[in-house]
Specification:
This protein is mostly helical. The chain has 22 helices and no strands.
Length: 594
């Protein structure tokens, strides 16, 4: 089957969802009011609360949520076949993920720009808020660890991407200075930065950089066994471990400083550049698909699954998290985007539309890994790459990068340049999410410090150190970082859990307003069911494989989930009782600006 069919069907479904379903939700359910005074106007301070043009805000929101996950998740999930992955990306985005992102943005604007964590206290209770903060902490912990491992692996496999990635940071600093200190505007500097980035990508092929092994690891018993007793091969694996650990350390040192710098200096200008880069990348991949017309030769449904591959039900729905539905999006939408929304009606474009953009990225990942990559290595090579769950997980970015390289060749771009380009895309968005996630984790640690009156945790430097240190320990605690992708199922489960809980809070608020809540209750019920099922299976596997670290983290998250659901049931009972007695307030009285 032609990859063009998948692209056209996917994009058509997203356009239809936006024009029809999101319009229905905006008018009938959320009842968006163009005259509603948003928090950006009500609390305008020129720092956090800033009324922003909806197109500029869309770019900021889109690049903040579109990390590496919508690429990696589908690139792993196609082990079950392209059809289940494609259906979940398309249907999950339209009816769950985009509804979730739209909802988080809307409910936050209704409550003075408060985050989902604070709204948990207002709608469910104080204890639920604390539980929610711990769930968020664990999610961000895994986001940081997984993305650091992904970036380290990409630097090792694509040394030509090192120059453009680190060079783009220097360029972003210059752009930030020009925009905020000289009044140069946004568009021209960010486009100039994009052109410089592409020049660096071209030069990257001539100046590849490999981090030396500064650790000096010796081969482990597992590496000796994997090498069949060959000391030379085992030593090479140990050197790779040293390089990976080195990159992970470098990344977290960089992230420590990046997450405490003023947002205008690095993060915001890099968002502008990455936003343009993402749109260009999607356009190039789409053009390459139409020109090269690669065929999807991977199976629609893989009937010859490797022995170590879990059943697609329920693991498909947590392997593809971002790209279908993601709780991380709710943190961004209610944490930063809601404070910049100029009009309440813009929430549909920014929230629902932003999720559709990420769904489009997930569709291109499916095409790249089932058509482009299969064309690159051949059908036998594709089956060999997806011959085990471990190989599919560890090689997800490799499949995407090489797949995009083949597709871009159809446009006359040299394969080497195209693969560096694809690697830079994944690294750039993983790094953006990593920086944002560490910054958010610092906020969470600070809130927990206030909650438990631990004053030292309210210091931003110490809170950042705790965030970076705990994330680095998790990333390095699994086979010197080589086993970092084993975190992915647990990351996906926690991410979906957070999305389900966010939809639960929105559903309770809709019931409070006496509006139909089925648009959020249906995806909430499905996501929480799949999440709970997947978490139980994960814990059973971790116990059988003696993965103590993941068992402890997963067990803690599972207990928090059950406790939060218990608190939510109690809140529903109180709400229904108040409705019967006629004492129900439409707006929670505890909502306050953060």
């Amino acid at each position: 089957m032609s990859a063009i069919v998948l692209l056209v069907v996917g994009v058509s479904a997203f356009v239809t969802g936006y024009l029809v379903y999101s319009r229905y939700i905006a008018r009938r359910i959320y009842q968006l009011d163009p005259d509603f005074v948003t928090p950006a106007h009500q609390f305008e301070d020129g720092v956090d609360y800033v009324p922003t043009n909806k197109h500029v805000l869309f770019g900021h929101h889109f690049t903040s949520v579109a990390g590496a996950a919508p690429i990696v998740g589908p690139a792993i999930a196609v082990i079950w076949g392209w059809l289940p992955a494609f259906l979940w990306v398309v249907l999950g985005t339209v009816f769950a993920g985009a509804v979730h992102d739209f909802a988080a943005l809307w409910i936050s604007t209704r409550h003075k720009g408060n985050s989902i964590g604070t709204l948990t206290q207002s709608i469910i209770g104080e204890r639920a808020r604390v539980l929610f903060l711990f769930v968020i902490f664990f999610l961000l912990l895994m986001v940081n660890a997984v993305f650091a491992v992904i970036i380290a692996n990409l630097f090792m496999s694509n040394p030509g991407a090192v120059l453009p990635v680190w060079g783009s940071l220097a360029v972003a600093l210059v752009v930030g200075f020009l925009i905020y200190r000289t009044g140069a505007g946004i568009l021209v500097p960010s486009i100039a930065a994009l052109l410089i980035l592409y020049a660096l990508i071209w030069f990257g092929q001539y100046v590849p950089f490999e981090l030396p092994d500064m650790i000096g690891f010796g081969p482990t018993a597992a590496e000796m066994q994997a090498a069949g007793g060959d000391a030379g091969l085992a030593a090479e694996a140990a050197r790779a471990d040293g390089q990976r650990v080195g990159w992970i350390v470098v990344l977290f040192v960089y992230t420590f400083f990046a997450s405490v710098l003023p947002v205008w200096l690095l993060l915001q200008p890099r968002d502008y550049v990455n936003g343009h880069q993402l749109f260009v990348a999607l356009a190039l991949i789409a053009a390459g698909v139409f020109v090269a017309n690669p065929r999807v030769v991977a199976p629609a449904i893989n009937l010859s699954l490797p022995a170590d591959a879990p059943n697609w039900l329920p693991l498909l729905f947590i392997t593809i998290a971002c790209g279908a539905i993601s709780g991380f999006h709710g943190l961004v939408g209610s944490g930063t985007s809601s404070k910049q929304l100029a009009k309440q009606t813009d929430a549909r474009y920014v929230g629902y539309g932003g999720a559709l953009g990420e769904g489009t990225l997930a569709v291109t990942s499916i095409i790249a890994t089932t058509a482009g990559f299969a064309l690159f290595v051949g059908l036998d090579g594709w089956h060999e790459h997806y011959g085990s769950w471990a190989s599919a997980s560890a090689g997800a970015t490799t499949a995407f990068v090489n797949g995009v390289g083949v597709i871009a060749e159809g446009l006359g771009i040299p394969h080497t340049v195209a693969t560096i380009f694809a690697a830079v895309i994944v690294i750039s968005f993983a790094a953006t999410s990593l920086d944002t996630s560490v910054r958010l984790q610092r906020y969470i640690i600070g809130e927990l410090g206030v909650q438990y009156r631990v004053k030292v945790l309210q210091n931003r430097w110490l809170a950042t150190l705790v965030a970076v240190g705990s994330s680095a320990l998790l990333a390095l605690g699994l086979d010197r970082g080589a086993g970092g992708m084993r975190i992915w199922p647990l990351f996906g489960t926690t991410n979906q859990l957070l999305a389900g809980l966010t939809l639960l809070i929105v559903s309770l608020f809709l019931l409070r307003l006496r509006r139909p809540a089925w648009v959020t209750v249906v995806p909430m019920s499905f996501v929480l069911l799949m999440t709970t099922w997947a978490m139980v299976l994960n814990l059973i596997r971790y116990r059988s494989e003696s993965q103590t670290l993941l068992l402890v983290v997963g067990g803690a998250i599972f207990v928090l989930e059950l406790w939060l659901l218990f608190e939510a049931v109690a809140a529903v009972r109180r709400l229904l009782a108040a409705r019967r007695e006629g004492t129900l307030a439409l707006e929670p009285t505890e909502a306050r600006p953060e």
